[in-house]
Structures are given as C-alpha cells and as structure tokens.
Amino acid sequence: MRARTVIAAIALAAMASSASGQTLPPTVSVTGEASISVPPDLAQIDSGVTTEAKTAREASEANNKAMGGVLQALKNAGIAEKDIQTSRLSLSPQSAPNRNANAPFLIVGYRASNRVTVTIRDITKVADTIDVLVGAGANEISGMSFMVSKASKLLDDARSEAIADARRKAEIYAKAANISIGAPISISEETAPGPMPYRKMAADMAASAPVAQGQETLRVSVSVSYEIKPKAQ
C-alpha cells in the first residue's frame, strides 16, 4: 500500500510539472519531527480587580482606585512597566428579576473590571508576585502560563534531528517503492513551542497554591521533498 501511495505521488508530480510547462524532477515528500524539553524562564499571570456598586460611576471610581493600588504594588515589587499590560476593561449593568411583566429585569447595580497581564522574567518570583497582587487588592487570578524566551535558538539541535527523521522516513518509502532518494529539493518548517496553561482559580486560592513550573516541550516539524532517482542496478 505504501509503495502504491508513493508511486501515485510521483505520477501527480509529473502531471503537475507537465501542465505548468516546466520540467521538474519527481519527488517524494515527508515530514520529520523532533522535540526537546526545557525548563521555562518566563511566566505570565492574568489578574485583575472587579468591583460592584449601585451606579456606574461609583463602580468605575472604586475600580480605578483599587487597580491603581495593584499597579503601584507591582512597580514597588520590581515589575517593570513594560511587563504590565492592560488586557481588558469592562463596565456592565447587573440585573435582577422584576415583577413588572413589561420590564422583566431590573438593573440593581454595576460591575467594573480591569484586568492586566503581568510578565515575570525571574521564574522564582512567581509565587511572590501572586502574593503582591492579592495583598494589593486583586480579587481575580484567572490564568497563568509558562514560556521559554529563546525557544527558536533552543530548537536548533532539534531541527537537525527533524531533518534526520525526514531522511529516515524518505528512505523507508524509497525502499518500499524500489527507488533511490537524492538531494532535498525543498524544506519548510513548522514549530509549536506554545505556553503551558495553568488552571484558573480565585485570588484567595491562588495566594496559597503551590506553583510548579515543570518543563516546556518544544517541537519542530519539517516538510522535506527529496528528488527521486532511478535505483542503481
């Protein structure tokens, strides 16, 4: 079955080159993969303040005051301004059931929310930063992620391994199809470092929860097309 698949791919490649008016060598295309595991060196915390009041103005002013204290506490803790970014602002009415059939809902207050994403460049200070946030008045810790800052450089060895993996697969197909593999015609890469998500929790839980950074798995995938040569007799 594999041999028939490779032969069909060769035929399609030949038809495509004929239709385009160009003479292209027949190829076999495979994907090589490799991965490495490294400890993260960056963390991001999504935190914020939510306040409620009877009027929109009161909710907004109370939220601004509380958030101002949180931001100042972060700066006092050594977090640079560039590492504190507002991620969401919202002000919404809060409703309750109303006995009036013409107006089934009654606005009983307003909720203001201000959220920031804090980048921590010293991974050992994650727990301390959470303590600072909660101590300054942040009442929501809704997400955390760990990352690797120089993922591309760390993937260099994995790239070589991915190319070797692609060659190994191509040789297997070549043997099954009774052909020989030549030089690579094209190489393209896809990487997926991705952050490691941390479970959501309330602020009071986050303040006492242990933080385990674990390891980040960095993956690289390369698509390689090899020239096909007649098998030496």
TrEMBL record:
Keyword Signal recorded: yes
Cross-referenced InterPro entries: 26kDa_periplasmic_antigen, SIMPL/DUF541
Region forming the signal peptide: 1-21
One Pfam family in the UniProt entry: SIMPL
Single GO biological process annotation from the record: DNA damage response
Record's keyword terms, sorted: Signal
Highest taxon of the lineage: Bacteria
Name recorded for this polypeptide: DUF541 domain-containing protein
Organism of derivation: Afipia massiliensis
